[in-house]
């Protein structure tokens, strides 16, 4: 939506005009309560008073399929993996529908799905623009291209990759469903990343200990 682009423009937050409040506020002197004094002066809990936690046992994420799949799904989303690895992003060059040019310079690019990108200067000139209800895909891209060109005083140059409305297929919901193979592979990749990070941390720790002239066994 164009409103999303216009909201990305620099926003100036006005300086506070309540300066008088700052000068009229009396100075506050914190008072430490007797309870705080007692807490800071106490020696703490004696080690002899500590008791082992009863009934606790170590669990593995691998033994909980729902939690494992949730972590694998989040890993896939974080790493930009889609349920359909062959699908192109909306703003991929191969999905270009048209370009709006002014004096030979591209100010806006429209894509087959109806989305668009433009320069900050073009967004500022176009301002807030509401799309007609019911338009989507190439039809929306065409309407936007014509409207942008009119507002910017430019021309529309249709791309060779443009498709017709009948050729366009809406994208699936963003809540992707991953296959069993994708989830299992993602979980293994997540474990490998964790092991690699742990190994790097241990290596860095040992190197720092060696530089300080001390040694330690952290394998336990």
How would you explain this protein's 3D organization?
With 220 residues, the chain is an alpha+beta fold. The chain is 40% helix and 10% strand. It has a four-stranded antiparallel sheet. Helix 4 (65-78) crosses helix 7 (180-211). The longest helix is centred in the last third of the chain and has 32 residues, at 180-211. The protein starts with a helix and ends in a 9-residue tail after the last helix. The relative contact order is 0.13.
Low-confidence stretches: 1-33, 82-86, 215-220
User: How many beta-strand segments?
Assistant: 4
Overall helicity: 40-55%
Helices, by number, come to 7
Widest beta sheet: strand line-up:
3-2-1-4
Q: Largest beta sheet, briefly?
A: 4 strands, antiparallel
Mean pLDDT: 74
**Structural shape:** elongated
What is the CA–CA distance across the termini? Answer: 56 Å
Order of helices and strands: HHHHEEEHHEH
Integer-rounded radius of gyration:
30 Å
Structural class: alpha+beta
Kindly estimate the percentage of residues that lie in beta strands according to DSSP.
5-15%
In short:
This protein is α+β, with helices and mostly antiparallel strands and 220 residues long.
Explain the layout of strands and helices.
Layout: H1 2-6, H2 19-24, H3 34-41, H4 65-78, E1 96-102, E2 105-111, E3 116-118, H5 120-126, H6 137-152, E4 155-158, H7 180-211
Antiparallel strand pairs: 1-2, 1-4, 2-3
Helix pairs in contact: 4-7
